[in-house]
Amino acid sequence: MDKLGAAAKLHGHPMSSPHSDIGRQRQRAIYVSGVAGKRPRVPVASVELELAAQAVMSPEAFAYVAGGAGRETTMDANRAALDRWRIVPRELRDCEQRDLSVELFGRKLPSPLLLAPIGVAEMAHRDADLAVARAAASMRVPHIFSNQASVPMEACTAAMGDAPRWFQLYWSKSNDVVASFVRRAEACGCEAIVLTLDTTMLGWRPRDLALAYLPFLEGKGIAQYTSDPVFMREVREAGRASRPDEPLPERGSPGTVRPTAGPRPPLTLRTIATALAQKANFPGGLLRNLASAEPRAAVQRFVATYSRPNVTWDDLKFLREHTKLPIVLKGVLHADDAKLALAHGVDGLIVSNHGGRQIDGEVASLDALPGVVDAVAGKIPVLFDSGVRGGADVFKALALGATAVCLGRPYVYGLALAGEEGVREVIANVLAEFDLTLGLAGCASVQEIGRGSLVRG
User: Fold this and answer.
1) Do 115 and 132 form a contact (C-beta atoms < 8 A)?
2) Cβ contact 193:323 at 8 Å
3) Count of Cβ atoms closer than 10 Å to residue 232 Cβ
4) Do both 115 and 220 map to the same domain?
5) Where would I find the H helices in 244-363?
6) Do residues 305 and 314 touch, judged by C-beta distance below 8 A?
7) 232 and 183, same structural domain?
8) Is residue 255 part of a domain?
9) pLDDT (tens digit, 9 = 90+) per residue, 178-203?
10) CATH number, domain with residue 130
11) Does residue 449 share a domain with residue 325?
12) Nearest CA among 334, 73, 74, 305 for reference residue 197
């Protein structure tokens, strides 16, 4: 058995059999370790998990990961929506062995769980996306590579072997960069492109604003860009075009963005520290980049081109022309948008409000899920994201029609507490609770979960 398989077996995850008893296996492993005085490395309860992570993360890191838009009422709504639905178990059914498997885009997965894309993982742990990729691979849980990763997708791919992965895409103002990212994702063996729709602009996030901190300005979370040959070519072209003796590109020409003069901060110790951080986070590290202007130019280029607020349905044709992979739209909450997605040949949807990070007072993801599921009528898979904290949440989302569920913040808290092992423990705990909930609700497989499994409480 390889290292990935050994790690998964240790955490009670099925690697070959379609039938599962991972819930009881996980319980048993924890209790047996307890006899020797050993407790789980990361808290099992979600509230304690978040509090423990807050204690070890910097204020800036925790604010970035845990924060939401405005008064964070959307985050509250996500949890309230999940809590409103109550599970109604059926008894005297043989659920001794349970099948957690689902199929997505031709691949059979051992469970209906994926890791959602979360950027700037280096703020939680130095191993960042590499630790997440290794943990996901060992548990056979698909990892959706973040567009705003701290480690290039190629490095994460090398750490995952043949384990499943997808790639999240933010639509840059440069279509050439979009096409380059997609080509790289295909070369990395990604099995779907997840186009995030709801972040064409950053939401109003008071926790980050109160600290006056955005990690991208330090060159964090832009590794997909600084490792991309097209983006770096554009960085150099933009630098040449901004010189007074060279003309700027014509406004509106494809794939170009005119440099703009923004506010320049005064020279302070913080400004110097930011400049040094940009150099340290750029490929090659601080010493190699001390005399280089490229780290700062790359940050400036990223800020200028990060996302396009004017992307429309018609732009999907460009994406389809540049990839044969399934295209999944993340951020669909309206039934009419789900129907438009079908009309434009989209392959899947993720019902998500970005974990409450974009609009304060937005509809809860779970409240939007049934309408989206009904709108697509089984023609494409619908995944669920936002507010998931445990296995019972996974069960509820599946009961309301989701094909699979994406886990977000909890695995980052595990990363902050114990790196790769922390991520693995969080995954193991969520899957164990889901497996036990499945059986205790009277279901022997994911396919047996339905809307009749829930009532409004």
Assistant:
1) yes
2) yes
3) 17
4) no
5) 269-281, 285-289, 294-305, 316-322, 335-343
6) no
7) no
8) no
9) 999 999 999 999 999 999 999 999 99
10) 3.20.20.70
11) yes
12) 334
Q: Which residues carry out catalysis?
A: 354
This prediction's pTM = 0.91
Domain identity same for 444 and 382 = yes
Torsion of the alpha carbons at 105, 111, 117 and 121, rounded to the nearest 10: -140
Q: Is residue 240 part of a domain?
A: yes
CA distance 277 to 114: 32
Cα(319)–Cα(336) distance, integer angstroms: 21
Please calculate the CA angle 302-148-342 and round it to the nearest 5 degrees: 105
**Residue 289, both tokens:** 């980049």
Give the Cα separation of 407 and 404 in Å (integer).
Answer: 10
Q: Which domain holds residue 300?
A: 207-250+261-305
DSSP assigned state of 22: H
Tell me the pLDDT tens digit for each residue of 244-293: 444 434 433 344 444 444 567 788 888 999 999 999 999 999 999 999 99
Question: Collapsing DSSP states into helix, strand and coil, what is residue 100?
Answer: coil
433: CB partners within 8 A, 6+ apart: 23, 390, 391, 392
How many CA atoms does the CB half-sphere of 62 hold within 13 Å?
12
User: Using CA atoms, how far apart are residues 156 and 354, in angstroms rounded to an integer?
Assistant: 23
Cα maximum dimension of the chain: 82
Do both 146 and 10 map to the same domain? yes
409: Cβ–Cβ under 8 A, 6 or more apart, which residues?
Answer: 50, 65, 66, 118, 355
- Residues forming beta bridges with residue 108, ordered by sequence position: 103
Positive or negative: CA dihedral 26, 31, 37, 41: positive
Domain count, the chain: 2
110 shares a domain with 51: yes
The radius of gyration computed from the CA coordinates of the chain, to the nearest angstrom, equals 22
